[in-house]
Amino acid sequence: MTQPVVTSGWFGDEPTVSLRHGTSLLVVALRGATILRWVLDLGDGPVDLLDGYRDADELRSQDGIRNGIMAPFCDRVAGAAYVFDGQDHDLLPGSTSRLVYHGLVRSMPFTLDLVDADDDGLAATFRCHGLTEAPQPGYPFPVDVDVTYRLGPASLGVQIDGHNTGTVPAPFASGWHPYFRLPGAATVDELELRVAATTRVETDADLIPLPGPDAYAAVAPDEARWRPVGDAVLDVGYLAGGPAVVRSPSSGVELTLTQSAGLVHVFTGDTISRDRRRAIAVEPVETLTDAFNRPDCSAAVRLGPGARRTFGATVTVTRAAPAVAG
Fold first, then answer.
1. Cβ atoms within 10 Å of 322's Cβ, excluding its own
2. pLDDT digits (tens, 9 = 90+) for 125-153
3. The domain containing residue 235 runs over which residues?
């Protein structure tokens, strides 16, 4: 069996854990259990397939939410407020800004809890007690969050577990916000993208899904397919009906993201402050944006006392012969 290597390190003044299995490397910041690097050898040397934070200050700023774990909610909560079991909750009390998104644990400390390895890969679980030990404004619910990364020779699995340690139900949903970059493509314009979906999420100008059934629109067979992405500006979600595939025609490298349920959100990075359109976010999420405020999502986000719920996705990498011009 290939012997895994687990080492502690630093990203500036931020602690990290590095996982190595064969030629595969994963570097995780303990702040948010945030992946900084995912490096594979695709046959002509190592390549980092994720566009992560460049330094500790950028990690702390959370600019772009690069490769962030989203919990206890995905994407946005409209007006930074919601009602749960008849109680009003304000995630930004006293603030004139009402923009809140991508959860709370992405900037909280995690600890390495468990490592397991076999011939096929290395799995490491990171645990966060932040929501339990320090209840947040607007989220007074003790939910522990575990994040497990499974590193294979040409794959990366991400599993997020929420455990309600309290005595009353809690609202909870999770997701992952990776930015992928592929060799041979300097910008997202050069990539090909295909999303297996029959339903698109319709939103208002603030990217909040429309009420009730108006949030869902049928997708034509070839609508969620771009060859290449070109100048398309994408910030859109789909009900996951199968894999999402990103391909670099010039290098032949292809990423396939699979998830058993939920939605997938595609973002071409047009509004981030650094390196716009240099990487594409393909985000597996458990529930619809603003699920805490939607009656049609109330059952999906409800986590009973003592209950656990798991959501995850897997990214696999293949390489075919590059496309030939002409």
1. 13
2. 999 999 999 999 999 999 999 999 999 99
3. 50-319
